[in-house]
């Protein structure tokens, strides 16, 4: 596999990408809610896994009914 497939992020970089607190990402890691890689005692997340996490939480918009002023 090419190294391009392993664009690794630190916990801080992943939290910035996901716009979450570092503590939230660390809690998710402890609960095994997100996959991670350990290298030499350091923890990394793959960028593709972070993007997949966002896409998995995507909720599609509901089409408008066409009624003006409807709430």
Description:
The chain is an alpha+beta fold. It has one domain (7-56): Arc Repressor Mutant, subunit A (Orthogonal Bundle), CATH 1.10.10. Helices cover 38% and strands 14% of the residues. The chain contains three helices and three strands. It has a three-stranded antiparallel beta sheet with strand order 1-3-2. β2 and β3 form a beta hairpin. α1 (11-18) packs across α2. The mean pLDDT is 88.
Percent of residues in beta strands: 5-15%
Q: Which architecture does the CATH hierarchy give at level 2? A: Orthogonal Bundle
What is CATH's topology name?
Answer: Arc Repressor Mutant, subunit A
Number of strands: 3
Low-confidence stretches: none
Q: Biggest sheet: strands side by side, in what order? A: 1-3-2
How would the blueprint of this fold be written?
Elements (H helix, E strand, L loop, with lengths): L7 E2 L1 H8 L3 H9 L6 E3 L2 E5 H10 L15
Antiparallel strand pairs: 1-3, 2-3
């Amino acid at each position: 596999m090419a190294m391009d497939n392993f664009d690794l992020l630190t916990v801080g970089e992943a939290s910035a990408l996901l716009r979450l607190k570092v503590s939230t990402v660390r809690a998710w890691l402890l609960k095994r809610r997100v996959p991670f890689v350990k290298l030499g005692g350091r923890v990394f997340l793959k960028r593709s896994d972070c993007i997949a996490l966002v896409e998995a939480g995507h909720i599609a918009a509901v089409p408008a009914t066409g009624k003006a002023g409807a709430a």
